[in-house]
Structure to design on (179 residues):
């Protein structure tokens, strides 16, 4: 844990607001994938309900939890020639305090064989993703205008949506994070 002291309480408040606003930014990602023989991908983050989010106190803020690397899911080869209608798969990526994806959960919960193949493609790709650690900062005021900070990395999760489609006989995958 790192402790930093500031001479004025308003500096801590300003930093808190800056860091919170930084957590709200999204990486710029393409909205459409370019069709190719191997498929391509973009990402949509699924909005989290308030019940699934960290509840930070007034003296706390968080930063990090930004994607560092993402492998694209690929359209299951055994399904390419079937020219299926669009298939959407929703997953939850569970990320540990070091920023590594440790688990991928299927949010759709269906037993369909084709769904299982599409989910397996998503899971295989998402398990290779990495993120900057999410760090929660707890600020303490000593009553004399000095603020100390304790920082600790925390696990987190993000929900993603992938849409698999066939464009002119070529597999394409659209999707990703949905906020």
């Amino acid at each position: 844990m790192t402790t930093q002291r500031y001479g004025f309480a308003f500096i801590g408040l300003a930093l808190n607001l800056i860091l919170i606003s930084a957590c709200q930014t999204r990486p710029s990602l393409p909205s459409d994938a370019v069709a190719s023989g191997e498929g391509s991908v973009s990402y949509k983050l699924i909005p989290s309900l308030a019940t699934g989010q960290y509840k930070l106190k007034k003296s706390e803020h968080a930063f990090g939890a930004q994607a560092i690397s993402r492998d694209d899911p690929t359209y299951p080869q055994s399904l390419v020639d079937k020219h299926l209608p669009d298939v959407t798969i929703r997953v939850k990526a569970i990320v540990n305090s070091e920023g590594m994806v440790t688990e991928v959960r299927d949010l759709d919960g269906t037993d369909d064989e084709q769904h299982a193949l599409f989910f397996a493609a998503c899971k295989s790709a998402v398990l290779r993703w990495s993120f900057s650690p999410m760090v929660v900062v707890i600020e303490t005021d000593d009553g004399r205008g000095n603020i100390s900070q304790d920082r600790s990395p925390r696990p987190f999760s993000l929900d993603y949506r992938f849409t698999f489609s066939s464009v002119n006989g070529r597999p394409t995958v659209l999707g990703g994070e949905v906020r």
Remarks:
- Residues 1-42 have pLDDT under 50 and may be disordered.
- The CA atoms of residues 119 and 158 lie 16 Å apart.
- The chain has one domain: 9-177.
